[in-house]
Amino acid sequence: MRTGRLRTVHPVLWAGWAALAAGAALCVIGWYGISGERYAERQLPYLASCTVPGAALIIAGAVLLTHGRGALAAARVEELYDLLVAAEPADAEEESGQSTSAPLAVSEELLMVPGGTLWHRADCPLVAGKAEAVPVDSKLVASGELGPCPICEPAEETD
């Protein structure tokens, strides 16, 4: 599950670091060549053959690193989603296409993670067993600063 996606991400990160290193080396070589020449016409070959390609490699390396880290984050989100889907019962939609499973969380005690934007039931799989989860202040829920967790609190029906 996790290793398949990460194997495709690591080469992109390595290529990004290699491009950054090669670009930096070319820029240093170009600078060294330019610094030894007094006249501009003798500096141009170093600029064209080392510094400009070095800068291009640095930019390409930065793009590869950004893409690789984004793909790594996407792989982690996908892994988290797979864990949440695995928490659902296997026979959830067995009879006539209707869901027969019980809710994941039924506790009346509400918890939140400091800095978070959602409130959870105490037995929600996302906060169960977390020491940093604290009871929710009812003012935060009433003001709308905290929203209900989509895992443990089903969407409220409007009349």
Q: How many extended strands?
A: 4
N- and C-termini, Cα separation: 42 Å
- Biggest sheet overview: 4 strands, mixed
Count of helical regions: 3
| Class from helix and strand fractions | alpha+beta
Strand order of the largest sheet: 3-1-2-4
Radius of gyration: 27 Å
Could you give the order of the helices and strands?
HHEEEHE
> What is the molecular shape?
elongated
Mean pLDDT: 76
The percent of residues in helical segments reads 40-55%
**Per DSSP, what share of the residues sits in E-state strands of 2 or more residues?**
5-15%
Low-confidence stretches: 155-159
What does this structure look like?
This protein is α+β, with helices and mostly antiparallel strands. Helix content is 55%, strand content 7%. The chain has 3 helices and 4 strands, in the order ααβββαβ. The chain has a 4-stranded mixed β-sheet with strand order 3-1-2-4, with no helix packed on it. α1 packs antiparallel against α2. The radius of gyration is 27 Å and the shape is elongated. The two termini are 42 Å apart.
